[in-house]
Amino acid sequence: MRRKVIAGNWKMNCDRSQAKALINELIPLVKGADKDVMVCVPFTNLETALSATSGTNIAVAAQNCHWEEKGAFTGEVSALMLKELGVSWVLLGHSERRQYFGETDVTLNKRIRAALNAGLKLIVCVGEVLTEREQGITNEIVSLQTKIALQGVTSEELERIIIAYEPVWAIGTGKTATAEQAEEVCAAIREVIAGLYCQKCADKLIIQYGGSMNAGNAKELLSKPNVDGGLIGGASLKAADFAQIVGA
Ligand code: PGA
């Protein structure tokens, strides 16, 4: 049995006092939850989030990291810097990184390997854009993204990775994939992992769905056998909504 993991992706939201307030509101609401709970916060909120969640069941993730340990990479943060801060999770390859900041499958692979080398645990995002879905090539695109992302990743390292299937057309649009669509692609990703590694590795892998998941649709999405959790954007900024998804 795979555990379910609900992660909130705050994106570029919340100043420090808002971050602290949101976490403090969330703590009693998700205490004793039957799912793992995580918040992916802006770099500037990491220390605040780490101290506010200390001793609770809420894990903290950064939203990106660079592949080099240090050097002339203005504006970037290395995996080692995150590790040194006490962060144990990092979100990588989000479609907004790809869409607005030119990240590619190849640079994502470099970031993944650096994060693994630093001892971090990862959520790795994959997902098709609308035209790809319309062309009927969703599974091919997502398979390819997964294969490139995981190049050079060992089966032991795979145990520190969660894959989040996020159809780009569903992110922030209010247009959720149907539970059947989510299930189909999550199952396809699991098949790719079985081919790349082994069936047992695939059976153990946690695969989340993300894209306009909310308190109203979470239960149905999470009821699918290959959907092991959610990556939640908008609805993670309200403690009550996020907690409802955790409780779904
Ligand atoms: P959304 O974002 O829930 O607001 O659609 C999901 C995500 O970007 O991870």
What can you tell me about this protein's structure?
The chain has 248 residues and is α/β, with parallel strands linked by helices. Helices cover 44% and strands 16% of the residues. The protein is built from 12 helices and 8 strands. β1, α1 (16-30) and β2 (36-40) form a beta-alpha-beta unit. α1 (16-30) runs parallel beside α2 and α1 (16-30) runs parallel beside α12. The longest helix has 18 residues, at 179-196. The model has no long low-confidence stretch (mean pLDDT 97). The chain binds 2-phosphoglycolic acid. 2-phosphoglycolic acid (PGA) is lined by residues 9, 166, 171-172, 210-213, 231-235.
* Order of adjacent strands in the largest pleated sheet: 1-2-3-4-5-6-7-8
Query: Which spans have pLDDT < 50 for at least 5 consecutive residues?
Result: none
Q: Give a quick account of the main beta sheet: strands, pairing sense, barrel closure.
A: 8 strands, parallel, barrel
H/E element string?
EHEHEHEHHEHHHEHHEHEH
**How many alpha or pi helices?**
12
Ligand names: 2-phosphoglycolic acid
Query: How many strand segments?
Result: 8
* First-last Cα distance: 17 Å
**Fraction of helical residues:** 40-55%
Q: What is the averaged pLDDT score?
A: 97
| Shape annotation | globular
Radius of gyration: 17 Å
